[in-house]
Amino acid sequence: MIRNGTTEPRGRAGGAVPRARRGLRAALSAATTALLTAGALAALPQGAAHAADSLGAAAAEKGRYFGAAVAANHLGEAQYAATLNREFSSVTPENEMKWDALEPSRGSFSFSRADQIVGHAKGQGMSVRGHTLVWHSQLPGWVSQLGASDLRTAMNNHITQVMTHYKGEIHSWDVVNEAFQDGGSGARRSSPFQDKLGDGFIEEAFRTARAADPNAKLCYNDYNTDGVNAKSNAVYTMVRDFKARGVPIDCVGFQSHFNPNSPVPSDYQANLQRFADLGVDVQITELDIEGSGQAQAADYGNVVRACLAVSRCTGITVWGIPDKYSWRSSGTPLLFDDNYNKKPAYDAVLSALGGTPGDPGDPGDPGDPNAACSAAYTTSEQWNGGYNGRVTITAGSAPIAGWTVTLTLGSSQQVVSVWNGSPSYNGNVMTVRSTWNGSLAAGASTSFGFTVNGSSSSPPQIGACTAS
């Protein structure tokens, strides 16, 4: 999981998926979601096998999903979006559904960035994991300042409002995240919820979540619980108690952040199985493995095979797409390198899922600079309460016929006019497409401009330029 200022574990345009494959993958994803919701694993329709040249399609043939953590601000990058669309059948927002992102001030919710990810996933036939409702980190300051009674009210309201907003759109929710300490104590972690509400806050959160969306899978999620140890034993004891008393819990998430100092434990599969034997699904929720080459590939393959060996292991999510956007990028822990090339770890995962490594990608896969453009932003004028911005579009080494750029504005800002481009809006995200100025020779440039009013004059975040 991407962490903002902590050291704890975590952290389309060109290259669109051809219609036939997109439809097939959407069907496979829908079939997988239906199977998981029903709590059963069954064979997919005949004829699906030929599509197993991507992670999501191969996992679907095993009755599982294969997902990635996604950041909204990267969706405007052609290679990022195309790799996501081609390879994955599930998404988890990296930060966009955390408390500080959704409810920065009490009772005031901002869903636009999370909506962008959910909308993209729905458009591609992908399922969505919600992450995360109650967590000690990435809390806005006002939460920690509340007394016990107000905190209980705020926690339950946050769960209810967020889950109601996404009701029917989220397959699984990480209801409570990382509530146990590291080390050998197996004790609860100090947090505003634990310190003020006591041990019962987890049960209360799950009961509130069930009332908000009875059809969503409700998960407890944690790290350093991948093998049998004091921390995983404490989680196991809690889950066993919940199941015995009828507390609504459907799944347990294992983050599975590995590196040479914290390798895949030898009892990984057995640990997953003992939780499954309690009557809950298990999900690998934030997988990344530092390393490179065949050693990294072997570890990835072992993790996938462990999941496949546990019938209630319903899916795997890797925590990011290319190495360069990983929260631990220096350890190159993901399946694609900085240029979106498939690493040996990718082939190992696809092979473990029963797919065929080395198949050619889509004819429209990105990566060739011949169908590229770049976007550069400047503030041309600024005043108290607003500014004029300009984005310059430059074609790559080949002509382009059109371009698209996504800009993310501050929550208090409003676009009042756009020239030399055609805008559309999703919350505070503005997507601008070319009009008369879309056709550019190789290396040629054009620009569009816009006026913004608001209490802040901070410049927008500019996504990648997408050529067509």
Approximate helicity band: 25-40%
The main pleated sheet reads as: 8 strands, parallel, barrel
Instruction: Please state the CA-atom Rg, rounded to the nearest Å.
Output: 23 Å
Indicate the proportion of strand residues.
Answer: 15-25%
> Class by helix and strand content?
alpha/beta
Strand order of the largest sheet: 1-2-3-4-5-6-8-9
Tell me, briefly, the overall form.
globular
User: For the residues shown, what is the average pLDDT?
Assistant: 86
Termini separation: 33 Å
Task: Provide tags for this entry.
eight-stranded parallel β-barrel, alpha/beta, disordered N terminus, 24% strand, single chain, five-stranded antiparallel beta sheet
Helix/strand layout:
Blueprint: H1 19-38, H2 55-61, E1 65-70, H3 78-87, E2 90-93, H4 99-102, H5 112-123, E3 127-135, H6 141-144, H7 148-165, E4 172-177, H8 192-197, H9 201-212, E5 217-222, H10 230-245, E6 251-254, E7 257-258, H11 268-276, E8 281-289, H12 293-309, E9 313-318, H13 344-352, E10 373-383, E11 386-395, E12 403-408, E13 413-419, E14 422-426, E15 429-433, E16 445-454, E17 461-462, E18 466-467
Parallel strand pairs: 1-2, 1-9, 2-3, 3-4, 4-5, 5-6, 6-8, 7-8, 8-9
Antiparallel strand pairs: 10-11, 11-16, 12-15, 12-17, 12-18, 13-16, 14-15
